[in-house]
Amino acid sequence: xxxxxxxxxxxxxxxxxxxxxxxxxxxxxxxxxxxxxxxxxxxxxxxxxxxxxxxxxxxxxxxxxxxxxxxxxxxxxxxxxxxxxxxxxxxxxxxxxxxxxxxxxxxxxxxxxxxxxx
Amino acid sequence: xxxxxxxxxxxxxxxxxxxxxxxxxxxxxxxxxxxxxxxxxxxxxxxxxxxxxxxxxxxxxxxxxxxxxxxxxxxxxxxxxxxxxxxxxxxxxxxxxxxxxxxxxxxxxxxxxxxxxxxxxxxxxxxxxxxxxxxxxxxxxxxxxxxxxxxxxxxxxxxxxxxxxxxxxxxxxxxxxxxxxxxxxxxxxxxxxxxxxxxxxxxxxxxxxxxxxxxxxxxxxxxxxxxxxxxxxxxxxxxxxxxxxxxxxxxxxxxxxxxxxxxxxxxxxxxxxxxxxxxxxxxxxxxxxxxxxxxxxxxxxxxxxxxxxxxxxxxxxxxxxxxxxxxxxxxxxxxxxxxxxxxxxxxxxxxxxxxxxxxxxxxxxxxxxxxxxxxxxxxxxxxxxxxxxxxxxxxxxxxxxxxxxxxxxxxxxxxxx
Lengths: 118, 417
Description:
The structure holds two protein chains of two kinds. Chain A has four helices and six strands, in the order βααββββααβ.
């Protein structure tokens, strides 16, 4: 089964991505984590900072475009990883060592719903 | 955060909860019914006691209330079946209920309430119960922990953990697993299952601070086994092992919060009261003259604890005990521990050979394996490979302090320095 891991990072984590010594630690943690999951990963991406997001809504014939991510919360989506695992529990185990989860942020796991054949 | 009063109250509640569930479940064979009854009784107590005052014998009060609910529950079930054609079965059940109610009424006080928690532990770790649900079952029925707490510690979604627990309890009733102590010839094996399930609880969240894992819950269960089965040497061995490990928890962080490995820990930061209790348990175990893996593991920890007095670690002694453990009671942990100790006595290549004997699939996500492999590769001078192994170990760490420490141990990349 495929399971999507949404990586919800804190402002601190976003800030440390490009900040000298903090960046070293941030990327070291991520690189060492990626080494332990590479045989289970089928896709993923690192997203640019939430400040670069745009959120679009169209309702009652009116269009609204807003700067920033859709939800104003402590954590913001910083990337995602798609796992291919036998059971959902395997993904829970893979998620439990993810740097975002251990550094004050969170990760959310969702099973991918298989699309019906056309 | 936890005051002595709070701890005493939760200790008393835990004591009562397990005793009441065990006794009621052993009478009706229905764990969920017993749990619901005790939970209802505790809830009623919290409602009534602030107004009416705490009764002179709180546990007798809880027992009476819970017993009434069990009988209600059984009566409801009997009524539900009234439409079924098996009238004799129904009559039997009603007669049994009446007998139950009479017997129950004759047991008013705690002194007369037999402690059936050991029997309940044997039910939870029965061979008919899948191995991965034995630990959760114990934690829920004997200690009253909820599925969320258990699931978080054992890396299972709470809803899934809840379903597993429901299925396991149903299995206890349907398979008619008896609430009894195993026969003497079965006891060592059956006790082994109980102890393994307790130790599995101890291992959860070991890397992390107190509060994440189930360390004290496991120690509490082991203490229960030791109290109710004092002649079992392995029970004492497991108890000693966990106390030795627990004694060092505070020493695993320095004042900045950085991780400190065992051999670098200040022995003054160890909890010497816990060490003393561990040594006493291990000594009592040795007098039973029935060796086993938990006693061996506790002996290894005892050698480490001895550094507090001698100032040095007897690594040769550690290596000898691991060799016995790995040969007599083979396990992944024993092999990894033995390999690490070979490195400590100047034989890193022999240690690496031991690690190479483990199938790769078993260790792909086993953090201690990668940490030990990294240490042995470093000691053998294979610096590039050691670097990769440290990174792999760091990637499997669940605690930031451990991750940082492992990454800091990496030898510098060759050609850079």
